[in-house]
Amino acid sequence: MKDKPEKLIVKGKRLDGRKMDELRPIKIEVGVLKRADGSCYMELGENKVMAAVYGPREVHPRHLQEATKAIIRYRYNMASFSVEERKRPGPDRRSVEISKVSRDAIEPVIIKECFPKAAVDIFVEVLQADAGTRTAGINAASVALADAGIPMKGLVSSCAVGKIDGQIVLDPMKEEDNYGEADMPIAMVMPDKITLLQMDGCFTQDEFKQAFELAKKGCEQIYEMQRQALIEKYGVEGK
Amino acid sequence: MKDKPEKLIVKGKRLDGRKMDELRPIKIEVGVLKRADGSCYMELGENKVMAAVYGPREVHPRHLQEATKAIIRYRYNMASFSVEERKRPGPDRRSVEISKVSRDAIEPVIIKECFPKAAVDIFVEVLQADAGTRTAGINAASVALADAGIPMKGLVSSCAVGKIDGQIVLDPMKEEDNYGEADMPIAMVMPDKITLLQMDGCFTQDEFKQAFELAKKGCEQIYEMQRQALIEKYGVEGK
Amino acid sequence: MKDKPEKLIVKGKRLDGRKMDELRPIKIEVGVLKRADGSCYMELGENKVMAAVYGPREVHPRHLQEATKAIIRYRYNMASFSVEERKRPGPDRRSVEISKVSRDAIEPVIIKECFPKAAVDIFVEVLQADAGTRTAGINAASVALADAGIPMKGLVSSCAVGKIDGQIVLDPMKEEDNYGEADMPIAMVMPDKITLLQMDGCFTQDEFKQAFELAKKGCEQIYEMQRQALIEKYGVEGK
Amino acid sequence: MNESIVAEIRKDYMYDLAKKGERVDGRAFDQYRDISIEPGIVSRAEGSARVQIGNTQVLVGVKIQPGEPFPDTPNEGVIITNAELVPLASPTFEAGPPKEDAIELARVVDRGIRESGALDLAKLCIEEGAKVWMVFIDVHVLDHDGNLIDAAALGAIAALLNAKLPNERYEMGKDAQLPVADLPVAITVAEIGGKLLLDPSLEEEQITPAKLTIIFNKDGSISGMQKSGTGMLTSEQIYQAIEMASKKAKEIRKKFLE
Amino acid sequence: MNESIVAEIRKDYMYDLAKKGERVDGRAFDQYRDISIEPGIVSRAEGSARVQIGNTQVLVGVKIQPGEPFPDTPNEGVIITNAELVPLASPTFEAGPPKEDAIELARVVDRGIRESGALDLAKLCIEEGAKVWMVFIDVHVLDHDGNLIDAAALGAIAALLNAKLPNERYEMGKDAQLPVADLPVAITVAEIGGKLLLDPSLEEEQITPAKLTIIFNKDGSISGMQKSGTGMLTSEQIYQAIEMASKKAKEIRKKFLE
Amino acid sequence: MNESIVAEIRKDYMYDLAKKGERVDGRAFDQYRDISIEPGIVSRAEGSARVQIGNTQVLVGVKIQPGEPFPDTPNEGVIITNAELVPLASPTFEAGPPKEDAIELARVVDRGIRESGALDLAKLCIEEGAKVWMVFIDVHVLDHDGNLIDAAALGAIAALLNAKLPNERYEMGKDAQLPVADLPVAITVAEIGGKLLLDPSLEEEQITPAKLTIIFNKDGSISGMQKSGTGMLTSEQIYQAIEMASKKAKEIRKKFLE
After folding, report:
1. In a domain, A138, yes or no
2. Model pTM?
3. Considering the domain boundaries, does residue A3 fall inside one?
4. How many domains does chain D have?
5. Are D and E close enough to touch, i.e. 3+ CB pairs under 8 angstroms?
6. Do F232 and B195 touch (CB under 8 A)?
7. D204: left (phi over 0), alpha (psi -120 to 50) or beta
């Protein structure tokens, strides 16, 4: 790991030249995999994630079935080459937790009653990581669900805010995350339904408010890009 | 680990002041957990164990069911902080063996025919260990079964004997176990049915006899305390 | 591991005195285990393997069953003391691959339609290893299947060829395998059906041809010995 | 089937109660069940505490031993937090490696301790780059009647307050108090029928669509948050949750930790 | 049941086609689907390549870091190859530790690299007996539409060609190209109805009784073979397979690797 | 269902026999099936022995290599005992990590060797605190027809008697005999219908409510006991079991080990 830079904000700009409230460049591609029922590739700065949706499909083993609605499963996984130090393949505690909170973030919009006894499986593979993989994954998963034609109440849009050199910034990248003072990923369904909220670090209650409002603005921008990607593919939003 | 003391018996007394045939102080509390169907907390000297019983309840997966009687499962587990060197969580070979012999010790008294196709699950958690956890666990499990209202032919009472400085002693504590020459835990159903018998170390056949008879006396004393604890809780023994 | 010998072929002879196209001594015993439905013990030079067959028998879990034919399972396993450095018990990647290709080698001759919904289980235990354990295992498994009375289209016979000091040799032993330039195990059903073919090392296409033809000759010799062992046991081939 | 009908009726009843400002066990929305903390219950551990919140019962043990620092923090001690949801504690817990609930519990507790600066990690360095104190925080749930996170977090900080650095055992001088620098308190808020309530019981947890745990430092700042459950919260609910929780955190800290 | 009848009819149809010299997607027997290779797609990895063969899509990442040599090869670098058949790539893949298909895939790719001498392992020694370069080749399958072995093997050599020794990161001078000494190409031949064809699609793989993968070095020699599937091949088929594959290997090497 | 009726009838028959002083295979209560021991059967291992008791067949291999001592016994060698109940040996054995039966078997064999002082661990120290001999005793069951413990224990001591310290391989002088200091013999007694019998066959094991294994040293003292099975034994039965077993242990030791 590189040494901590002296300052993370220089002359009002962040190390990568961004303003405080600026997202990294985003690229969203819909329907990029053949085998999956729905898929989405997303780049968020240096993050590269692939999401696939399979379902509705049968549930094995049977005792996991629910009589009146679909079960939702979510697996977040990092490729071993996606980070600087090679990661051992397979789930670790971090990825298990991220899978859970991501499912909690996505599940609220899925109209599960459409598919009793079935499963909808969401798989997110992180191909390259640079802080923000869980939010990128949720964004991609949300688009992949739409691509798969799963009925939803809305798209889930997700981004993080951080605190660096005492200032609140949108969408922190790796170095800002490593050396920053706080990190808070959220996910939102328009106009104001929060489905993910995690925080670690240190916010005064005022800072929290400022950060939270900024994060919601970020989600709104991402929502527009998700919508645009779906329109490009399907002509209309969400199929 | 502390160094071995020069002698384990000084002037006819053991290091903790006990006589050769004296048990450590015992505390038994019945029905201490809300969720379990039956429970018992037991202290045996510095040992602290908690036992819980769930059942009769359904068996999953089904192929484990027995058509005419309940299956009995027993899980002995040590909390990672229960011993001097932190223990990695989860079962190891020792705890798997103890779970098996403890089940073999408890199962004979359960009237399994009362609950065909069902399971009775016994869980023992060692919260603090000081030699004698398996016997304490069996004693607590036996009381927890009574607390759960599981029909039994009798209570199982268990204690160990050891050989230290060439003498047979009842209920060895940690230091006596570490530096002693033999250790033999037994379990008994009154008046003379042995359900657990393990030994390691070295006994002549005469020493074995002396030790075995002393262990049975210990079980009798423990039986009285188990009975007392149940009477205090229920007015009558075993509900 | 010993150092590499200067030459693996001295005066036209291999280190163990064999000619280029000579198999190691082979011993085959049929029906050596009581519990298994069929069994075979085989020595191939210093290799000692035991094969057992169980089946046709019920398949658990059920979803593995096939409606119209038996499933074939094959487990190749090395005893921890079978190699110079003690091997940790349990499957590793090598043994998983060998189990798969061995099953692919054996399955073609089994008339699976005879036993719908059932399983035929083949277990190979390597008790002592000296290069060639997979081929010895396949040979033993094939005989054990016959011993178990499983209907087959033919016996599978297997042996390897290698390249040492630039020459093609039949049935390489450990030192030849370690220091040789190529190794190629095959399995064959008479007269010319190849069911296993693996190769690593380096063969020109001409060398491959020479090696492949030699390996087939080796299989023919082994086939005769397998047949002989079954005739000795049953009077007629394959029961 | 009947079971699920009963459950449905019970759920409707609890929602109706919530709308009337009531809870099924008679508590006020901002009221905890009785809390008790017994530190030092496991003498084998360097620190320990048993926490009860109503019938929920959690035992936290702290083991401390020397070990190697992580390469990127050569002069800091190491915190390792683990939670075991042993099958003794609930009919729904199963034996085996920690599943997602246990992992989430451990990680939220861990972040509460770590991000709050509760432990001064620099003071846990014995020899830079070579030897530091490893602090194992093990959460052992004994009886699960809801709100495990608050109980476990409270147990963790209480066990740390109770803990000693075992210098004598490793021949490094006298045992010393563990350097505890802050007193984080985790408060979980549950949403039921649009209303927010503290310290959800198991029965309430089973019907709540969303919970939010907020961890507060002594100075009132926030050092951790975790939303869980497959429901949604409005911004207003989140601000309200922080307000409710902030007050309660102060109360609990004062009463039990200071 | 209907599903399996449809499958049976489809299978018969494909066999009939094969006898007429045709394939279900219109390709010639010796024709690959479109191949594309994008090297350097993962900047976090020391080397990487995405390979597509038709709809099959495989990402190979190469990570390189210093480590200890094996005791019996004290002056050689170490290659470790792993393949993950993640459930994102196919409805039939399951999460969990690699199963036999993933292990076979990884081991065939590994032997292709190792036995061909593609990497000059002696040049990967940093300090004899103490420190060598560990080269991790990780095959990550993204979309499985058949012929994973050829795609993965192609990805592996392309990622190695793309890889740098990260000397700077470990303060050992400037980054350098990885010493690639040969360019092995794996070609898989499938047997259907007595006919041999290259690059089987998933649909073809599902009905083929036997496949044979052959790995060729630059000089046309063979550095690896693996038969898979529960069918049998005649000697003649094997010789014919080698001939077909040998030609195609040269073509692919020339077009994509040289 | 019929199967279990047959089993029930068979069980009654065996109980009736027992009352008449007979066994289903015609043996006397204190009679073993034929025992054979072949030492040195695995030349790759430092020591080995195949033991057959009737159709029960167990192979024990001993591997010896240098390693680090445990911190609390810095000048003693290390014994590690493992048992594999591979599915080749019985239709009821399954592949996978050792289950409780295999673990119990390994641990009883281990204690028999360890507590009897069969190995002089102090003589297995190479360099105090740094290097000692690790003795791996691996029990590989080949055919399970009952009484695995006695067979495995006999195989263990026979394999140790057969074992050499591989000094040459590690350049520490000449190979030497392993220092075997005692000859423990394990005898298992089964209770059927109130009667006690030795060397239960598989069929007898399936109906016996309780077994007791007793391990004897050369001098007749007891170095290990293990009751197993969900039945109960009276004190008198235990004393009687020890008497029967003690005699038989002497016989077997004399015939096969001395």
Report:
1. yes
2. 0.96
3. no
4. 1
5. no
6. yes
7. alpha
Give the span between the Cα atoms of B161 and B172, in whole angstroms. Answer: 6
Range(s) of the domain holding residue E77: 22-256
The one-letter code for the residue type at D15 is Y
Confidence of residue C62 (pLDDT cuts 50, 70, 90): confident
Q: Which of D231, D154, B92, D20 is nearest to A106 (CA)?
A: D231
| CB-CB under 8 Å, D229 with A1 | no
Instruction: Indicate whether E111 belongs to any domain.
Output: yes
Q: Is F103's Cβ below 8 Å from some Cβ in B?
A: yes
Strands A119-128 and A71-78: parallel
CA distance B60 to chain D (A): 11
Q: Which residue has the tokens 């010789």?
A: E239
Query: Does some domain include residue A136?
Result: yes
Q: CATH number, domain at B219?
A: 3.30.230.70
What is the number of CB-based contacts under 8 A between chain C and chain F? 90
* A239 pLDDT more than 60: no
pLDDT at site A2: 56
Cis check: omega of the bond before C61, within 30 degrees of 0: yes
Contacts of B180 (CB under 8 A, 6+ apart): B8, B162, B163, B164, B172, B201
D11, part of any domain: no
**What proportion of chain A, given as a percentage, has pLDDT over 90?**
93
For F61-87, the DSSP string reads EEEEEEEPPPTT-TTS-EEEEEEE--T
Contact B125 D86 (CB under 8 A): yes
Q: Which two tokens stand for residue B59?
A: 């068996």
Residue A155 belongs to what domain range? 18-234
What is the pLDDT averaged over residues F41-59? 97
Cα F150 from Cα F148, distance rounded (Å)? 6
Q: Percentage of chain A with pLDDT > 70? A: 97
User: Tokens representing A220?
Assistant: 């709104």
Distance, CA of E192 to chain centre: 21
Which residue does chain B place closest to F106, by CA atoms? B93
User: pLDDT by residue (tens digit) across B166-187?
Assistant: 999 999 999 999 999 999 999 9
Helix (H) or strand (E) holding A78: strand A71-78
ω into C191 cis (within 30 of 0): yes
Q: How far is Cα A117 from Cα F168, in angstroms, rounded to an integer?
A: 66
Tokens of E149: 């072995």
F216: domain CATH number is: 3.30.230.70
Question: Minimal CA–CA distance to C144: which of C45, C46, C49?
Answer: C49
CA nearest neighbour of D49 among D177, D166, D141, D158: D158
Is A7 part of any domain?
Answer: no
Residue F1 lies in a domain: no
Distance CA C235, CA C221 (A): 20
Kindly write down the DSSP assignment for every residue of C24-86, as one continuous string.
PPEEEEES--SSSSEEEEEEETTEEEEEEEEEEEE-SSGGG--SSS-EEEEEEEE-TTSSSSP
Task: Quote the CA–CA distance of E41 and E110 in Å, as a whole number.
Answer: 21
Structural domain count of chain A? 1
Q: What is the pLDDT of residues F163-186, one digit of tens each?
A: 999 999 999 999 999 999 999 999
- Decide if D130 is inside a domain: yes
Residue B59: CB atoms within 10 A of its CB come to 18
User: How distant, in Å, are the alpha carbons of A5, A177, A194, D253 from that of A201?
Assistant: 19, 10, 20, 20
F182: β partners: none
Q: Which residue has the tokens 């300090």?
A: E127
* Contact present, C49 and C42 (Cβ < 8 Å): yes
Span E97-150, pLDDT tens digits: 999 999 999 999 999 999 999 999 999 999 999 999 999 999 999 999 999 999
Helix (H), strand (E) at residue A73: strand A71-78
Q: Which phi and psi (to 5°) does residue D223 adopt?
A: -115, 5
Partner-chain contact A99 D100, CB within 8 Å: yes
